[in-house]
Amino acid sequence: NKPGEGGEPFSFTLVNMHTDPDEAEYEVGQMAGVYNFVTTYRPEEDDVIILGDLNVDASKLTPLTNIPLLRSVAGTGPTNTRGTKQYDHIVVNHQNTLEFTGRAGVLDMASFLKISPDDALDLSDHQPVWAEFRTTEQRGPIQVASPFTEQTVR
Q1: How many domains does the chain have?
Q2: 89-115 burial, b if ≥16 CB within 10 A, otherwise e?
Q3: Is 104 within a domain?
Q4: Nearest CA to 87 among 51, 113, 121, 132?
Q5: Fewest C-beta atoms under 10 Å: which of 30, 81, 106, 138?
Q6: Which helix (H) or strand (E) holds 132?
Q7: Is the model's pLDDT at 91 over the cut of 60?
Q8: Residue 8 falls within a domain, yes or no?
Q9: Three-state secondary structure along 71-129?
């Protein structure tokens, strides 16, 4: 929304997850049950966002993405600092979370902070993932959130 526009504040539920690398696919499967539980337990909340270090690439999110319109918006590229693997995700329901603007991506710490790749790796073995949301509730029975635009911030 533009500055000065009113509206009901965007409310949401975040479910943060860190899977065990050795059990990641199993735990992602269990996360589908957690998502279904949260949406049933809090039916008044239509914006349930799953995020974190899931230790799998987007192709292994099938238990979650089999839930209609649930998609990772952090992109398809690597999220680890070495630039070789995708581990981190922000998963939203594109029918319910209309506040998602379509802008999301990965922050390249070395470029953004103007440090060496080794210094970036000393900070973390993961790059931050991000997504942009409007600050006020967006509602509509047949609307779908903005299409995803992957960006790497440098």
Answers
A1: 1
A2: bbbbbbbbbbbbeeebbbbbbbeeeee
A3: yes
A4: 51
A5: 30
A6: strand 129-133
A7: yes
A8: no
A9: EECCCCCCCECCCCCCCEEEEEECCCCCCEEEEEEEECHHHHHCCCHHHHHHHCCECCE
Confirm whether 1 is domain-assigned. Answer: no
Q: Give the CATH number, domain containing residue 67.
A: 3.60.10.10
The one-letter code for the residue type at 147 is: P
Q: Are strands 13-18 and 48-53 parallel, antiparallel or unpaired?
A: parallel
- The amino acid that residue 28 corresponds to is V
Amino acid letter for position 55: N
**One-letter amino acid of 93:** N
Q: Residue 61: pLDDT band by 50, 70, 90 thresholds?
A: very high
- CA separation for the pair 82, 75 (Å, rounded): 16
Full domain range(s) for residue 108: 13-153
Cβ contact 75:49 at 8 Å? no
User: Is 5 inside any structural domain?
Assistant: no
Whether the predicted pLDDT of 17 surpasses 60: yes
Tokens 């009113």 correspond to: 6
DSSP code of residue 18: E
Q: For the whole model, what pTM was predicted?
A: 0.86
